[in-house]
Amino acid sequence: MAAVWYREHLWLVWIPRDLLLFYLAGLLVVAGPAVAVGILVERRLHLHRALSRQYATLDAMHVELARTNRALRALSSIGHEMIRADDEQTLLTRICQALVDHVGYRLVWAAMIEPGPAKTVRVAARAGADLQFLDNLGVRYDDSPRGQGPTGTAIREGRIVVVPDSRMHEVFSLWPDRPVAMDWIASTVSLPLRRGERVVGALTMYEPTSREYGQEELDLLARMAADVSYGLRFLQTGRQRDQTVTLLRQALRMSAAMTRTARELVPGNAGVPEMATMVLRQALALTGSEWGGVGLVARRTGRVDWVASAVGEGKSPPAPAAAPDIYPDDGGRYPGPWGAVLNQGVSVCRNDCISLEGYCPVLAWGEEGARFLALPLHKPDGTVSGVMLLTGGERPYGAKDVRATRRLAMLLDMAASRRRAEEALVLARQRAEAANDAKTQFLANITQELRTPINGILGMAQVAMLEGASGREADNWQTVRDATERLMEIVDNLLELANVEAGSLSPVLREFSLRRILDSLRGAFSVRVGLAGLTLDVEMASDLPDRYVGDPFRLRQILSNLMDNAIRFTPTGTITVRARRYDPTAHAGGARRVPVAKEFQGLVLLLTVADTGIGIPQNRQEAIFESFILGEEYLTKRFGGAGMGLSIAKRLAELLGGSIWLESQVGSGSTFFLAVPLWPCDPGRPGKDGLVGGLGGPAAAAYPGGGGRGHQPAGPGPGLAQVRASGGGSGQWRGRLAAAGHGAGGRGGDGYPDAGHGRFGRREPYPRRRGARTRPAVTGGGPDGLCPGRGSQALPGRRDG
Questions:
Q1: DSSP run (H or E) holding 85
Q2: Could you report how far apart the first and last alpha carbons of the chain are, in Å?
Q3: Most buried among 195, 213, 354, 755, by the most CB within 10 A?
Q4: Measured between alpha carbons, how far is 259 from 133 in angstroms, rounded to an integer?
């Protein structure tokens, strides 16, 4: 059948169309499955390749994830170590070890910048295998070959440096003296460490295989480096805080010690040994020393004398030793372990055991010696005056101990200098007071001796004129009398000044009339004012009472001196005397000028004496109130004066509880102000003998014109100044006075002449000074302490002081 079918269907005998169809059908039957199979195979290959790519991506993602996990583990471990660490070294060491143990790095080390211009780094911490080569690596962060590595570049440029394949990197191949142990390093990453904005080091990690670092891993590593930097900064801040707290505590201890020492030294009633002991106690407490001593250099011999010593609180006192004889050698240099203190003026601190035998006044440590601290003491001129020695400290002496004890030594220097200055001032004051007392005694003695011959000359001139001298002879005697009277005024001023300086005067309070004193002064100076071509105005405020309780004699004496100065130094113009209440707000100084008690019930009287004279320069307005100081130059002075009037006036004003001052302008005149406290009184209630409160007896007798024995009525006849002589010529003078019809009064019970008024005025009595041989011979008194006649001008003063 097949053959039949073959013969019937022989393709050779087929027509072309059927044959083509046959071929096409056969092709479809054969090629269709092949094509399908090919397509299926190609699809399978495409799927395989896609799956391979996915697997590769997954593998890469796994690797990246593993690396990220490593970075996260590194970040986490660093966070834990930052919490646990309490100092920088511990933090870096634990971070390096954590990166090796938990992250898997082969070697990790931390490099920190060394201070100085060399730009070197030190190995601050390390962990891992093969660590020894780091000691000889010599990493720098400059532009040299040793500074071109990852660590140096990270520090220099402040960025993360990654070396994927160290074997292909030229820096590793060209590294000077490259250690063989570095051959295993395949990849490196270095992270900069910062404190604030400044790079201070780097954290470098080595691995034995080459690899790339992804951006996410680098970001995590950068975050890790930032955390480490923050931890370093935090620890530094904590360390600085602790240091600050420690320094503050030390400063507080030092301040407390300084305060206690200063408080103990301020009174100044202790001697140098006591003050040195006070300072030593504080120094021992600050330094924890067992014993301290202060030695001072003797000025003449140079020997070191130990003037003070102290034992620390709670310490047993050491055994005393014989005082060592420490002298300088021929070159002036001191021997011994602390000799440089005296030789060079520097502090000496020795913490090794040094024997102080022969250089310390105690035996506490035997031959083994002890640590000590010695500091110099200085005089005000800077020269070394001694040594402060502290020994047996509980701990080694440091710079802070030197600073603390140096400050205490400075306090001792100042206290000792002050003590020496006070002693010198006391000695100088004693000498000055002795010289002033000698001067005052001399003035009192010489004035007392001068009064007797002056009284004799004045009396004889008076007698000669009464016996009939006329013409030129009378003029001559008048000149003698005037000159003698002027000389008597100078002697009276000298005696008054001596009494004031000696403090032998005291005010005598009594009731007086202010208006009467002013009227008396107007009458007493009117003739002089008229002869000088001047005008005198005396004014008294209408709201002032007339009668007061005070010392009228001293008040009038002050005003007389001021008016006398005003007349002398005023060529033309007016002299004005005013009395009014004192207003503290209207004058500079205010209430300080008259310091009265709160319960003071009186008033403060202000008396002013103004002139239109030559004025006083500003630079001499304070000085003219001193004794023997003139208001003009001695060599060119145009006016008279011995420089005592204003000094007496100022001291009498202070005696009365007031003060005196001036306002002046050269060429425009001067105004002197006198402010004194007084008590207004009822004029209808006088005391006994005219004194306040019935004062009598010695107080009344001692006060001029006070109603006691010193106040006698004027006798008959013209009356003469009383003359008393200490020599044998007094009888001759008394005879001549008796022949002329005048009596020579004797001495009263209180030692004053009891004669009447003299035609030349009456001199006021002065208290007798110790050692004085005579008293003033010309006396008298009047109501309210006023003295009529020419003598009522009292003691003319000087504007020149």
A1: none
A2: 179
A3: 755
A4: 57
pLDDT (0 to 100) of residue 340: 92
Residue 253's contacts (CB-CB under 8 Å, 6 or more residues apart) are 286
Which pLDDT belongs to residue 708?
34
pLDDT of 700 higher than 50: no
Average confidence (pLDDT) over 5-29: 67
Tokens of 49: 């390749």
- Phi-psi category of residue 723: left, alpha or beta, with phi > 0 → left and psi -120 to 50 → alpha: beta
Exposure string (b/e) for 448-469, b if CB count within 10 Å is 16 or more?
Answer: bebbbebbbbbbbbbbbbbeeb
pLDDT tops 70 at residue 337: yes
Chain centroid offset of residue 768 CA? 50
Instruction: Grade residue 386 by pLDDT with cuts at 50, 70 and 90.
Output: very high
Cα–Cα distances (Å) from 418 to 423, 729, 753, in that order, read 8, 60, 55
Is residue 45 pLDDT above 60, yes or no? yes
Residue recorded with tokens 């096409």: 24
C-alpha pair distances (Å), 782 with each of 92, 141, 505, 509, 701: 107, 109, 20, 16, 13
Element (H, E) at 797: none
| 51 three-class SS | helix
**Residue that has been written with the tokens 């007389």 in this structure:** 560
CA distance 350 to 370: 9
Q: In what order do the strands lie in the sheet with 348-354?
A: 304-311, 291-297, 384-391, 370-378, 348-354
Alpha carbons 667 and 570: distance in angstroms, whole number: 10
Per-residue model confidence (pLDDT) at position 374: 93
Instruction: Give the residue from 752, 750, 743 showing the smallest Cα distance to 775.
Output: 752
Out of 429-443, 633-647, 673-687, pick the least confident: 633-647
How many Cβ atoms are within 10 Å of 599's Cβ, its own excluded? 5
Map residue 662 onto helix, strand or coil: strand
Q: Which pLDDT band, with edges at 50, 70 and 90, does 371 fall under?
A: confident
> How far apart are the C-alpha atoms of 564 and 558, rounded to whole Å?
10
For residue 420, give the 3-state DSSP assignment: helix
More confident residue, 306 or 717: 306
Percent of the chain with pLDDT over 70: 74
pLDDT confidence band for 385 (50 / 70 / 90): very high
Q: What is the pLDDT of residues 202-241, one digit of tens each?
A: 999 998 888 888 887 788 788 888 888 888 888 888 888 8
- What is the token pair recorded at 165? 């394949």
Query: Is the pLDDT confidence value at 417 over 80?
Result: yes
> Is the CB of residue 462 less than 8 Å from the CB of residue 720?
yes
DSSP result, 593-654:
GS---TT--SEEEEEEEE--SS---GGGTTGGGSTT--SS-STT--S---S-HHHHHHHHHH
- Sequence-distant (≥ 6) Cβ neighbours of residue 700 within 8 angstroms: 508, 689, 691, 706, 707, 708, 710
Q: Residue 289: in which H helix or E strand, if any? A: none
